[in-house]
Structure formats: C-alpha cells, structure tokens
Amino acid sequence: MIEIKNLTKSYEDKKEVLKEVNLTIPDGTVFGLVGINGAGKSTLLRLISGVLRGEGGQVCVDGEDVYENEKAKRQMFFLPDDPFYTFNVSANALAQMYQAAYNFDEKVFATYLDKFKLNAKAPIRNFSKGMKRQVFVALALAIAPKYLLLDEAFDGLDPLARMVFKKGLVELVEEKGTTVIISSHSLRELEDVCDSYGILDHGDITCSGDLENDLAKLHKFQAAFDAEITAEDFSFPCMSFTKTGKVVRLIAKGDSGELEKAIWEKNPLFVEEIEVDFEELFIGEVESRGYLQ
Q1: pLDDT (tens digit, 9 = 90+) per residue, 79-98?
Q2: Distance set, CA 59 to CA 5, 65, 183, 273 (Å)
C-alpha cells in the first residue's frame, strides 16, 4: 500500500507545488493521476518513487518511508516522461543494467520487443520517440514490480502499441498483483485500464475515488429547445453546459430521473441521456473550480 501523508514540496524559486497532499492507494489498483499542465503530477510521482524528498510530510510504501529506502525502491519501477539512456546503449544493454537492480524476466522482455518490432541490438538514440518509449515499456513489463509508476504512459505510442501496453498492464495486475499509478493527459486511454483516480489541482488532490462509481453519479443529457435557455434556467447546478443552436448538452450530479424531469419542465423538443466518460468527469470538475471559463 502507498500512503501519502501531508506531503508538501517546493522548488528553489519558492513555488509551492504540492500542499499537504493526502492520498492512499491500495495494492492491486490501477490509479489514474490527472490534472491540468503544471499541476504537479510529475513531481508527485518523483516523490512517490523516492527520487525527490518533500519539505513536509512523507510517502510510505508498505508502512516504510520511501526516501533513501533501498528495500522500498526495489519494489518500484518509475518510468518518467523522458527516461535517461546513454549515447550508445541498445535495448539489450539497457536490460542488462536493470537486471542488476530487479528480478528481470528476459523472456518477457524479448517477447515485447518482438511485438513492437524493435531491434534489440540497435542504439536507442536512432529510434523514434515512440520506439524509445516502447523499449522502456518492455522493460517495465519485464521487471513486473510491485509498484509501477508511469508518467505520460501513452505519449508517443501508436494505437497498436497502446493496445499491447494496456493489455500488458492488465495482465500484470491480474497475475502479479502489481499496483500501477499512471499520469496521463489521455483520459480516454486511462478509462480503459484504471479502476480508481485522483485529480491534482492547486497542489492538492481535490477529487478521488472509484472511477466506475463516480462516473455513475454523473449524468449527461442532450436536449433541444425552441426558446433561449442557459444553465441558470435549470433548478439544479450544471457541472458542464454547452449549446449549439437549439441543442444543449449538460452534465450534472444527482438522480437521473429527477434531473430528466427537471429538464422536461423547461419544455424541450426532446431529451436523451448519454453515457459520461472520464474526460467529461475531469472537465466538469475543473470547470467547476473556475478553469476553462
């Protein structure tokens, strides 16, 4: 289990990036960490991995502080947005280096290199951004750590590679019990694999929970009106409201039947409910805090 307690982090320019963050991530969870640019997602992942140390609070892994804790770090693999590699290193040479620190499955690594059609002996510097990402994805899946931290996990991957990666993550969780924390701007990709989430905003986790349950609390309706109508005309607060011609789309929390009844009271031409996705949940939450206005 990962426990984050009153975690605070500032940089040299005195900018406070994280402010007393509290979060618990249970074992065997695929946790999606989301937020606008500059929210502090990468910083939080570096603190969880023990690469950075906060000015206050702590990060505990299985009850132990992770910073300068070799035992805890051996249970983790952190894949940053722009991973480091030396000039002439190949995928095979990179694998040999990681074998010194982790229980490494060479067969799994070779399998994923083959799936990604990568030359294991070629210098990584000659690969495209997506191919480089594929090498490190193969490393992560071959290491199969107890805790896998991924920063912008799907960045640069083509649709086929994303599908292979997502399938590999699901298998890792099901077969090894791995806990995965993924930071990504691709919320539709996260929705495919995550069972829980947290929104990082203004240095704190402002919203978190079970993804399926929280999506079930939101309802999106599409309706058409002859008369002019605004979000303020409804008897309930709208998390999101857009209008194109006569057609409006809105998202709100509450009982689906009661919300639909309230919409019909405004004499629409039609009303239909549409499924809400993770991206809309996120946009609704950040819009409610004054963004995107």
Answers
A1: 998 888 888 899 999 999 99
A2: 6, 6, 17, 42
State the average pLDDT over residues 163-177.
94
Task: Look at phi and psi of residue 142 and say left if phi exceeds 0, alpha if psi is from -120 to 50, else beta.
Answer: alpha
- Give pairs for 102-111: CB < 8 Å, separation 24+: 102/74, 102/77, 102/143, 102/145, 103/143, 103/144, 104/142, 104/143, 105/142, 105/143, 105/144, 106/142, 108/138, 108/141, 108/142, 108/144, 109/138, 109/139, 109/141, 109/142
> Residues 263, 271: contact at Cβ < 8 Å?
yes
Q: Given this model, what pLDDT does residue 60 score?
A: 94
Asked whether 92 and 120 are in contact (CB, 8 A), the reply is yes
Question: Residue 16: what residue type?
Answer: E
Helix 91-99 × helix 129-143 angle, to 10°: 30
Report yes or no: 49 and 42 within 8 Å, Cβ to Cβ: no
What is the average pLDDT score of the chain? 91
pLDDT digits (tens, 9 = 90+) for 7-41: 999 887 667 889 999 999 999 999 999 988 888 89
Please check whether residue 61 is in contact with residue 18, taking contact to mean a CB–CB distance below 8 angstroms.
no
